[in-house]
Specification:
With 197 residues, this protein is an alpha/beta fold. The radius of gyration is 19 Å and the shape is globular.
């Protein structure tokens, strides 16, 4: 990879009201949403530096009431996915399990083919309203081999880390695939060389 700027599409998904727009706006514009300034489904851009490389993140904030066709289009085009639940809602935690399945279904991928996904428990500032323990979040993320983080779009805790982790994850999987492709292209040539000897 050279130093030119390239872009990655990151899709934010989760149950209604978990803080998808808050996380996106907090990260891209340093805005803290309140119940009086709501936002729904939008696209935000922000550049991120990873090891000397400048990467443009196109962040799509989805909404539960989107048309299935549009939702599928987001999933098909997404390079990485931020699946958010609220630690104050067990229902929202159960919801991301279905979204995880949906992503694999729409992308026509097998479970042993990794897709960059991070599991995020938002609203960790509301400790006294907690319904999902950190262990539950962590155990689920472990079971599907994905990174996990708790954050707060209100206090900005761990917000930058979400996007750094998912970007690194996308790049790692991209490199791995490219290396595997190079290896499968090289392999027949080696065999040919052996035959000559
Ligand atoms: N205390 C606290 N409140 C939050 C946090 N994140 C979001 N909220 C509040 O939760 C409510 C919903 O946040 P949104 O960002 O609109 O949630 P959303 O997932 O985009 O909701 P929809 O677009 O309706 O699906 C708002 O009142 C936010 O102020 C957080 O980390 N802590
Ligand atoms: Mg929203």
């Amino acid at each position: 990879m050279n130093s030119q700027v390239f872009s990655l599409k990151i899709i934010i998904m989760g149950f209604s009201g978990v803080g998808k727009s808050s996380v996106a706006l907090n990260y891209t514009h340093n805005i803290i949403l309140t119940e009086f300034n709501q936002a729904h489904g939008d696209e935000f851009k922000k550049t991120i530096q990873i090891n000397d490389h400048t990467i443009l993140l196109e962040i799509y904030d989805t909404s539960e009431d989107e048309f299935v066709a549009l939702r599928n289009q987001y999933i098909k085009q997404g390079d990485g996915f931020v699946l958010i639940y609220s630690i104050t809602s067990k229902e929202s935690f159960e919801e991301i399990k279905g979204i995880y399945e949906e992503i694999y279904r729409v992308k026509h991928k097998d479970k042993n083919e990794p897709i960059p996904i991070i599991i995020v428990g938002n609203k960790c500032d509301l400790e006294n309203e907690r319904e999902v323990t950190k262990e539950e979040g962590m155990n689920y993320a472990d079971s599907i081999n994905c990174p996990f983080i708790e954050c707060s779009a209100k206090t900005k805790e761990n917000i930058n880390q979400i996007f750094e982790i998912i970007t690194r994850n996308i790049l790692e999987q991209k490199y791995q695939r490219e290396e595997e492709e190079i290896w499968t292209i090289k392999k027949p040539k080696r065999e040919k060389g052996c035959c000559v000897v």
